[in-house]
Fold these 2 entries.
Entry 1:
Amino acid sequence: MPAISFEFFPPKTDEQRTQLDRAAQALKAYAPDYVSVTFGAGGSTLSYTGDTVARLHRTHGLEVAPHLSCMGGTRAEIAELLDGYRAAGYRRIVALRGDLPSGMASPGDFRYAAELVAFIRERTGDHFHIEVAAYPETHPQAEDALRDLQHFKAKVDAGANGAITQYFFNPDAYFRFVDDVRRLGVGVPIVPGIMPITNFSQLKRFSDACGAEIPRWIAKRMQAHGDDAEAIRALGAEVVAQLCRRLLEGGAPGLHFYTLNRARATRAVLAQLH
Ligand code: FAD
């Protein structure tokens, strides 16, 4: 059975909290290895990740992995978060650079995720299993694709135990990425990040921002369904389940689902895989 993990974001309203609880309850049935919680960049959102992992850990009994992004943060702030997570008994961290929020001038004490990984190792030794981000279709700000691979390798050399990819819909991009970094000497597991398709226009907006390509054949078929949400959901589940099957058959060590705090679309994909 491949390792399954689910990603959530911190809810900010009571309604969103209820939605997260419902999703966590439903997805627990798939016995995930862990669930991760994203880290919103900047100021007041800092504490939400900690609250949310605590809730998922205590209320739902799930193994948790808080995301930690270093952009805009100081060494002292990051150290405090790390110490708190260690004291709470968490064993996993997803370490990221993050993006500088508009209007925030200072990038903080760290420039790249590799520096954050090194800092986590320096401060907490081997306590945490560290995952980092990987970009099979190249990070949108990379100088070029080959240097992006080298920068990915630097995160593993700094002490990361594994990676989760940005989502993608073309399995060849993943296989090529894995082959390329293996040739560079990177041996850690690289788990594909899977984005279930529910709302196509939202997905298109996300994808434009993060540099994920939606193949023309998928876009065309989605567009043909217009506002028919049911048809889009059904097609989305079929396309994403087929992608997952090809990834697992090709040797992917697991699947990490971007749930967007809803269980339905992720379950629809998993139902087709079982
Ligand atoms: P890095 O690995 O530091 O890379 C960033 C860019 O810098 C790349 O283009 C890289 O090629 C380049 N680079 C790296 N090192 C060097 C160097 N030495 N010299 C020159 N260039 C260099 N964002 C959030 O804010 N919160 C989250 O919770 C979150 N979770 C995520 C989870 C996953 C699985 C993924 C894939 C992404 C997530 N992100 C999150 C988004 C991520 O923070 C952004 O994509 C961000 O722009 C890059 O983060 P990184 O950790 O990949 O950065």
Entry 2:
Amino acid sequence: MTAPKWWQQAVIYEIAAASFQDSDGDGRGDLSGLLQRLDHLAWLGVDALWLTPVQPSPFRDFGYDISDFCAIDPSLGTIEQFDQLVTELHRRDMHLILDFVPNHTAAEHPWFVESRASRASTRRNWYVWADPGEDGGPPNNWLSRFGGSAWAWDDTTGQYYYHSFLEEQPDLNWRNPAVREAMADVLRFWLRRGVDGFRVDASAVLIEDDLLRDDPPDPDADETLPPPQRLRRIFTDDRRESLECLEELRAVVEEFDDRMLAGEVQGKVDRIGHFYEGKRPRFHLPLNFALLDTPWDALSLQANIDAYLNSIPENAWPCWVIGGHDKHRIASKIGQTGARLMAMLALTLRGTPFLFAGDELGMEQAPVVAGRIDDPFEKLVPGYGLNRDPERAPIRWDEGPHGSFSIAEPWLPQDDRTRNVASLKGDDRSILHLCCSLIALRKQEPALTQGDQEPLRARNDILAFRRRHGGESIVVLLNLSREPRRWLAMESGKVLLSSHLDRKTGLPVDPPLLLRGQEGLIIKSGR
Ligand code: NOJ
Ligand code: MG
């Protein structure tokens, strides 16, 4: 057996620098602020940080509109501070993963400025240009995810350009080898600076159908879905051509030792397996949102976990995402006690867990009133609950003004005062201590990180599974009901951890075991 890789054992913690810690009083977090908080992250025990984009950007889409791939946005800091971040993380045995946004640039990117300058520009075919359709309108019916046609008219050169997202986020033309080469060099630029890996943004939409065939209406989509989601995106999303590009990205990452490639992949769970490997390897970790998209009961969870495991290759390493900058906070969906169970689940299932900064505080959707909306998704497709600002709210570190995130008014409204690091640190039964204890337990019990996983049949509202490694066997029991529930089917053992943080470690337990409402228990078999 080969030794596990760092990214198979790691807890990965996503940070949007703008929402983490401000150091210069402009109400937006920055790299220097993040550097000040590294000791807290070391205390929490997370092993790797994934930073959402830090490159220069007009910030129309939370930094996912990049105008220079090989620099740091001045509002976030300098390249020297970035290098310092790499050094400081590595000194603490932590890893750094960067967002890589290959599908599009900001309209301000010099490549696009050149591309749109004239049809004769050497960079013309770095983007996706097309003539009007027969009626003089857009070339076909493709829709932008952010609303309206995916084609924007360019007056100067008399053609349309394609944008999967904002009009100010033109799609790069990944059929062009020069684009692929330039983007490979972007990866190398950061890999040489010591970055340990990437999370590839929007990886399924790199290449569209070259015949520009229209997408059909989705027969399952009704009026309750936002208009951009009412087409079946056969000709724009998840095409074989795009998946092949991922093999090239992976090959670049393999030029360097021990790096990791994770990816945002679209589509249903039954497609996720394709993102691991085709003719050649693709992602180490295609991000899996199954735990977030599941009804919160034992039977649905049991089924969705297996549906995911069934859909990935047998030798593939799983991953489990419980929060992210595009996803409503889990604590708002399933409540504070539910969020504790979710943390226990993600940190004990076989695979790599991904947390979004603030999940360990039980952060909920922050109240964002109409005048403060920043997210273009909500502005352009209003009324469908799509606003992503509420989960992007800046962290509160203590009870002070603005939670000591900033001396100025934060760029987005914040979550409840009580959900701050200092208060939760002072309460030894808080969700923060639970996350910290779970992460520590993973380091202490190899069965939780390296062990096999064997499902147990969910009964009585209890989701259950076993992890085994060497001679050790650990059982995880999660009572999803608000009422106490009995678990009969277990041998004797001793308590490792209760999600209520009030059972003594090492306490012997025998069947029948009584779990309290929404209690999770980790038990080591045998005495
Ligand atoms: C996926 C990112 O996660 C999301 O935040 C962004 O809006 C789109 N890609 C477009 O870049
Ligand atoms: Mg700042």
